[in-house]
Structure formats: structure tokens, C-alpha cells
Amino acid sequence: MTVEGLTVRFGDHVAVDDVSFTVPHGGVLGLVGESGSGKSTVAKAVVGLVAPDRGRITGAARRQLVFQDPYASLNPRMTVGTALTEAAKVGGAERRGRPAEVRRLLGLVSLDAEVAGRYPRELSGGQRQRVAIARALAVHPDVLIADEITSALDVSVQGAVLNLVRELRAALGLSMLFISHNLAVVRYVSDTVAVMRAGRIVEHGPVDAVLGDPSEDYTRELLAAVPRL
């Protein structure tokens, strides 16, 4: 997926200003920056939830977004099985094959099949985020956009979800835009990183180069502000 010259305005405020980057096939690009830097607006523009004022997004027909708060993104009146069945339908699964597809999706995110009968309120935060990831995978996305998917979770659960992301990438060859304010988290899952500040990308390159020897003071400040995993 390639993003070229993406600009998003809300009235007089420029939330995203001429942003360009590429998520290579099978690769993970980490998009990092402090709150309000424009990261989530980029994510919403990529999946069509926000209309850009300028720019192009090409190279990936199916883009799926996993939100920060899994509880808010799941229908509280639907069981996990129903939610995944609806997603599997969109993903092209035939009616008689959908129960097996639900079991497959739960297995991908290391959840037991019996979770299909539960409601979101009956799950832990980490389990809900796994369900949200499974639902996104049901439509066979070309690119998965993960927007702060660990920031609402306990530290111990964050590690398990990050390990899951790495496992899914290895198993499925996932291409991913991984958004976080935490550079240590981005270092753990990403190949390349783009650093956003006030709507613009100020530094971009291989994750070890950018985080090992950043050229921007802002990147160094972000590194100093968060603990390493």
C-alpha cells in the first residue's frame, strides 16, 4: 500500500499535512508520534472513514482497521460467533462453511472455540482485542491497520497481543500499518518506522536506524519518554 501526499483538514486545522509512505507486501510500518500528531487520522483516511482533502492511496484494495478500544468496536448485543460469522460472510465464506471459519479465526488468535458463545462483556480486554483482530482477518485484508491496539491493555496483556501480531505476520504474511505512541512497542513489531509530529512525517527509515540513531530531537524525546520492552 502506498500513500502519497495525504492531507486532511478539519476546518482551518490541518490534521495531516502532505504525508507519504509505503507499507511493503508482508512488511510492517510503524507510525509513531505523540497524541494529536495525526496518526489516527491517517488510519481513518486509509480505510475511508475520513475523506482526504488531497493525496492518493493505492496498492491495497482491502484495508481493515483494528481500533484502540475493542469493547467499543464490538457490538455488545452480538456473541463473538455471530460477529465473526457476519465478518466471514463479507469475506466470502459460504454459509455451510462459516462455523468452521469462525473456529479457524478464533484459532488464529489463540482463543478456544467456546469463546464463540460469549458476549464482549464476558471477555477480558485482551480477549476482546483478539476477537477484534480475528474479525478484521475474516475479510482477508491486503493491509491491516492497527491503531494503538495495546494502549488500553494492562502491560502483561500488551506483551501477549504484541506476540500474537508477530505470530500472525509470520503465519499469514500480513502487511500492516502499526500505529502507536510507544516507540518500544513499534521497535518490537515493525521493520520500518515513520515519526509524525503536528501532522507531518519528520523522520522515516528502517526501525533499527531511526530508533538506534535518530536524527531528529523529537524522535529522541519520544525514545526518552517511554520504557523499553
UniProtKB/TrEMBL annotation:
Q: What Pfam families does the annotation carry?
A: ABC_tran
PROSITE patterns in UniProt: ABC_TRANSPORTER_1, ABC_TRANSPORTER_2
Give the top-rank taxon of the lineage listed in the UniProt record for this protein.
Answer: Bacteria
Q: Output the CDD domains linked to this UniProt entry.
A: ABC_NikE_OppD_transporters (cd03257)
The parts of the chain that form a coiled coil are none
Keywords of the record, alphabetical order, are:
ATP-binding, Nucleotide-binding, Transport
Q: Where is the ABC transporter domain?
A: 1-223
| An annotated GO BP | transmembrane transport
- Which GO molecular function terms does the record list? ATP binding; ATP hydrolysis activity
As for family, the record states: Belongs to the ABC transporter superfamily.
Q: Can you name this protein? A: ABC transporter ATP-binding protein
What species is given as this protein's source? Actinomadura rubrisoli
